[in-house]
Design a protein that fits this description.
The structure is a single chain. The longest helix is centred in the C-terminal third of the chain and has 19 residues. The protein is elongated, with a radius of gyration of 30 Å. The protein contains 23 helices and 33 strands. It is of the alpha/beta class and 680 residues long. It folds into 3 domains: 211 residues, UDP-n-acetylglucosamine1-carboxyvinyl-transferase, Chain; 226 residues, UDP-n-acetylglucosamine1-carboxyvinyl-transferase, Chain, CATH 3.65.10; 120 residues, Rossmann fold.
């Protein structure tokens, strides 16, 4: 997951391959709650791992429900059988509406029946999301519910510590035209109190988002509760209802998340060697209403086929067809249509989307604002949005409003025909439903290699370039290439095979050829801060002084350098690369977007290295370190092939008196300037 302030996406050209979707958020949190309310334990496979499900799991734990992580990623929930394990607790539910609404209903009923008292709160945005219609329905039942801030909004207090008699003899009335989650919450909770008599729910007004209610009814049946439906206006929960675990539940892939990859296949030409985009985990037989996004995408021209658990998408008509569509049946997925509309042949109108106004943000306003930034003409109303594509696309920084769907939707703008960069602010907000969304996107997208930005940070030994490069890469969400580590790996592998790496031996042509062959055969894997060689973690071994000295010697061998060049070039992957070394900007990436030559005085570098070694419990003599650094500098600067020197167009940065943070900020400022120039 990209835990950074912003993510720059370069212009993208094509897409293809297979993506496995994370579990459905809607199904995951429903199943977790149903499992907790049931008799017996439930094993849940393919549960979504996201902010929303972590919030629900934390809430269940606080409520005394035992949750066990079992082999194969299975979550086992030991059901409470409709009982209360604790009678009072405060729950923080973040911005998870799929946790707040159903927990409100279930805990309000249990607190009323059994004399509990629970407080539910969330982030500031959650306290702006209306819940008054659900509160009103619960009060009809006789549940003590108090809004602790503004009436009709969280935070809430459920119950007052005393048991009360519930009023189940009349239908519970709830509005259906604001959010289907209110009805879902009641449907999930009321079987807890329908032991002796049937309970009716009456929907007031038109019910929106009916497919989400179908998900709820389907899952209720899985857990042993049948609900009779009279059209979409009345629901009856039978007397004697009781939740019983089905044993094992597999969670479908998220159909709403599928919409981004359906759109990807519809917008992007197929990458070479692929037939387009394939989605696994959800298919045409899905119980999720958002699978009907397939119909909307086909209407716009996408070529889509599929099976029960798989979809295949490729670009069909181009440009896409503009549409005028009532989106009541796909409220979340319809946001993706707004970005697809940017690639259409005319004006697209999306109607009946009033529910967008009360989601994680006001999504109609958000989509309108961000589409305009890209150059589109947009008209918005109380329950519609109308989008005309840009005549010319503008480079834009997309504000995401802490809304995962806004972030994922606008990543697709990177396929724009004017090849402008798209910046996604706060990309980590996708953690709500799809933590690895951007990684999944970049793995399936391609663009000409010269469009992938590279920042080179070169410099002498102990200048701090590794620390600087690592932090810059982290701040930008770029890949990291520690070229010095590659040479250290060659030296370490040579030592493990009994090959000498002293300067005299390396001057022998046969030994140089053996080292080159060894470098070419390295099985290397970089995993965060860990470095693996032939399946073994060699991170600590590479940080020793002996490994550093061996790296300096083998890096002067042309055969080694040639073997490692292709490996280094392969690190240039989306969304970008930060490469540190001694010749990144002069030899490996001579056309890099930004080149930095980092240095400090030999005395300052020796002092830093001395402190570093002492902190690790390694004895060191600062005079010896200084002499060694000067010798390395001389060797690196005087070697015949690719001597250490600044690139002609490098920014020189002397960090002798700078903190790490100041050095990082200077490089980021230079990068911002480069990025701004590229957009002009």
């Amino acid at each position: 997951m990209y835990d950074i302030a912003f993510l720059d996406i370069p212009p993208l050209r094509s897409a293809g391959g297979t993506v496995r979707l994370p579990g459905s958020k809607s199904i995951s949190n429903r199943v977790l709650l149903l499992a907790a309310l049931s008799v017996g334990h439930t094993d849940i496979a393919d549960l979504l791992d996201s902010d929303d499900t972590r919030v629900m799991l934390a809430a269940l734990d606080a409520l005394g429900c035992h949750v066990e992580h079992r082999p194969g990623g299975v979550i086992r929930v030991q059901g409470l059988g409709g009982q209360l394990a604790v009678s009072s607790v405060q729950l923080f539910l973040g911005n998870a509406g799929t946790a707040m609404r159903p927990l409100t209903a279930a805990l309000a009923l249990l607190a009323a029946e059994r004399g509990g008292c629970f407080e539910l709160s969330g982030i500031a945005r959650m306290h702006e999301r209306p819940i008054g219609d659900l509160v009103d329905a619960l009060r009809q039942l006789g549940c003590p519910v108090e809004c602790l801030g503004q009436e009709g909004y969280p935070p809430l207090r459920l119950g007052n510590g005393s048991a009360v008699d519930l009023k189940l003899d009349q239908p519970i009335r709830v509005r259906g035209d604001v959010s289907s989650q209110f009805l879902t919450a009641l449907l999930l909770a009321l079987p807890l109190v329908a032991r002796e008599r049937a309970v009716d729910i009456e929907v007031v007004g038109e019910l929106i988002s009916k497919p989400y209610i179908e998900i709820t009814l389907n899952l209720l049946a899985r857990f042993g509760v049948q609900v009779q439906r009279d059209n979409w206006s009345r629901f009856t929960i039978a007397a004697g209802s009781r939740y019983v675990s089905p044993g094992l539940v597999h969670v479908e892939g998220d159909a709403s998340s599928a919409s981004y990859f359906i759109a990807l296949g519809a917008i992007a030409p197929a990458s070479e060697g692929t037939t387009g985009v394939t989605i696994e985990g959800v298919g045409l037989a899905s119980i999720q209403g958002d699978i009907r996004f397939v119909e909307a995408a086909r209407a716009m021209g996408a070529d889509i086929s599929g099976e029960a658990n798989r979809l295949h998408i490729r670009r069909g008509q181009w440009p896409l067809r503009a549409i005028d569509l009532d989106c009541n049946h796909i409220p979340d997925a319809a946001m993706t249509l707004a970005v697809m509309a940017l690639y259409a042949d005319g004006t697209t109108t999306l109607r009946n989307i009033a529910s967008w106004r009360v989601k994680e943000t006001d999504r109609i306003a958000a989509m309108a604002n961000e589409c305009r930034k890209l150059g589109a003409t947009v008209e918005e109303g109380a329950d519609f949005i109308r989008i005309t594509p840009p005549a010319r696309w503008a480079q834009a920084s997309i504000h995401t409003y802490d809304d995962h769907r806004v972030a994922m939707c606008f990543s697709l703008a990177a396929f724009n025909p004017d090849n402008v960069r798209v910046r996604i602010e706060d990309p980590k907000c996708v953690a709500k439903t799809f933590p690895d969304y951007f990684e999944a996107l970049f793995e399936r997208c391609e663009t000409p290699v010269d469009r992938i930005p590279v920042i080179c940070i070169d410099g002498p030994t102990a200048s701090g370039k590794g620390t600087l490069a690592s932090e810059v890469a982290r701040r930008l969400g770029f890949h990291l290439l520690d070229s010095g580590a590659l040479y250290r790996l060659v030296g370490l592998a040579a030592s493990q095979q009994g090959m000498a790496t002293d300067e005299e031996t390396l001057r022998q042509p046969s030994q140089a050829q053996r080292l080159g062959a060894l470098a070419a055969s390295l099985q290397v894997r970089f995993d965060g801060e860990k470095i693996w060689l032939d399946g073994l973690d060699v991170t600590d071994a590479l940080r020793t002084e002996s490994a550093g000295m061996a790296a300096s010697r083998v890096s002067a061998v042309p055969e080694v350098r040639q073997a490692l060049t292709e490996l280094q070039l392969g690190f240039r992957r989306l969304p970008g690369l930060v490469a540190d070394g001694r010749d990144m900007g002069t030899v490996i990436f001579p056309r890099a977007s930004l080149k930095v030559f980092l240095t400090a005085s030999a005395e300052q570098r020796a002092e830093r290295r001395h402190k570093q070694l002492i902190s690790k419990g390694i004895s060191a003599n600062i005079a010896d370190l200084l002499a060694d650094l000067k010798a390395r500098d001389h060797r690196d600067m005087s070697r015949a092939h690719a001597p250490l020197k600044p690139a002609d167009d490098a920014k020189q940065l002397d960090n002798s008196e700078l903190s790490i943070e100041a050095s990082v900020q200077q490089v980021l400022d230079w990068w911002q300037g480069k990025a701004a120039d590229a957009g002009n």
